[in-house]
Amino acid sequence: MPVSTSSSRVIYDALKANGIRLLSALPETWLVHLIRMAEDDPEMVLVRLAKEEEGVGISAGAHLAGVKSAMLMQNHGFLASINGIVSCAQLYRIPLLMLISYRGEFGERDPWQTEGGGATEDLLRALRIPFAYLDAPDHVALRIRKAQTLAHSANKPVALLLCRDLMWEEPA
Amino acid sequence: MMRRLDALNAIYHHLQGSVVVTIMGAVAAELQSIAHQPNFFYLQHAMGLASSMGLGIALSRPAERVIVLDGDGSVLMNLGGLTTLARYKPKNLNHIVYDNESLLSVGGFPTATSTGSDLAAIAHAAGVPHTCTVREIEGLVVAVTDAIARHELATIVAKVEAVGPAAFVTDLGLLENRFEFQRWLRQH
């Protein structure tokens, strides 16, 4: 499976460096290495979800209790979480650090991913959720740190879109 | 069958010493009508996520006892959340579901528990270690007291009458409640 181990490691190390101690996740192909890294890390509380929206509530509870968290999801999981994002995180001014695998963009081979890909950025803008792309390893650490800084100063959800160029190593 | 307000009063002394997360509507308004505490948080929307918030707090603060006051309409919106609770089984979390078999605050339309869906059985099948359904105040008090003493995850379904307060909006602002609760939790 050509999911990039080295890029996943760069992302995971940046989460750790920024004090993330709780990760909620629902598996998706591009997230497999990140989830395994969390499984193998005794310092990380990994919460496996049945549906991504639960992660909004879990991160809200963790934040109020003083624990930094992040959410790993596919963009379709973001779509499935929108009511929770609006009526829990935005209504109650809760910072969320959402790492969203950006499926359905250029290069996507799975037809079922293509519709959600086209809607993702418009929905983020409609919800006024600040977002940035993670598409090359060299800027991952800085963008994660800046995203978390804004989430906490604004008490708002922010999103980082995990892009194909970062997460997927195309066979030559 | 019991009234929810009486059922809240009967366990109030347990709530005072716990971190409490409630759902919106009648539960939030009635608990505030007894007496608000800084360790009570009322999730006034996001139906289904009160139990997820309780899980996030319980996992983050294992030394605190967390009680989630849920309802049938909210639990039915997040049945998958029961499997997540059961998966992690936080010992410091107790989950009380006030089941009035209706969506009271939006007109009293019946939920699926009115036609036989059994939330305690669903929680049990999801893997929650202790589940029960209680119909009288005395049974609720015993179930909650036992659950706290046992120090293991429990889902207690309390069948209550479909009656609620005259008004659902209280004078406690949502953000006032949120920041007060955060401050209490982080200083405690």
- The number of domains of chain B is 1
Biggest chain pair interface: A-B, 31 and 34 residues
- The succession of helices and strands of chain A, N to C, reads HEHEHEHHEHEHEH
User: Which CATH first-tier class of chain A would you pick?
Assistant: Alpha Beta
CATH superfamily of chain B: Thiamin diphosphate (ThDP)-binding fold, Pyr/PP domains
- How many separate domains of chain A? 1
Question: Strand arrangement, largest sheet of chain A?
Answer: 2-1-3-4-6-5
Spatial order of the strands in the main sheet of chain B? 2-1-3-4-8-7
Strand content of chain A: 15-25%
- Named CATH topology of chain A: Rossmann fold
Spans of chain A of at least 5 consecutive residues whose pLDDT stays below 50 are none
Shape of chain B: globular
Q: Which characteristics define this entry?
A:
heterodimer; A: 172 residues; alpha/beta; Rossmann fold; B: 188 residues; six-stranded parallel β-sheet; two-stranded antiparallel sheet; 45% helix; globular
Task: Tell me about this structure.
The complex is a heterodimer of chains A (172) and B (188). Chain A has 172 residues and is α/β, with parallel strands linked by helices. Chain A has helices spanning 5-17, 32-39, 53-64, 75-80, 82-90, 114-126, 140-154, 164-167; strands at 22-25, 45-48, 69-74, 96-101, 131-134, 157-162. Chain A has a single domain (5-163), classed as Rossmann fold, CATH 3.40.50. In chain A, helix 1 (5-17) packs parallel to helix 7 (140-154) and helix 3 (53-64) packs parallel to helix 5. Chain A starts with a helix and ends in a 5-residue tail after the last helix. The model of chain A has no long low-confidence stretch (mean pLDDT 97). By secondary structure, chain B is α/β, with parallel strands linked by helices. Chain B has one domain (4-187): Thiamin diphosphate (ThDP)-binding fold, Pyr/PP domains (Rossmann fold). Chain B has 8 helices and 8 strands, in the order αβαβαβααβββαβαβα. Chain B has helices spanning 4-16, 26-34, 50-60, 72-77, 79-88, 119-126, 137-150, 174-187; strands at residues 19-22, 40-42, 66-71, 93-99, 102-103, 109-110, 130-134, 154-159. In chain B, the strands form 2 sheets. Chain B has a 6-stranded parallel beta sheet, with helices on both faces. A two-stranded antiparallel sheet of chain B has the order 5-6. In chain B, helix 1 (4-16) packs across helix 2 and helix 1 (4-16) runs parallel beside helix 7. The radius of gyration of chain B is 15 Å and the shape is globular. The mean pLDDT of chain B is 96. Classes of the chains: A alpha/beta (172), B alpha/beta (188). Chains A and B meet through strand 2, helix 3 and helix 5 of A and helix 3, helix 5 and helix 8 of B.
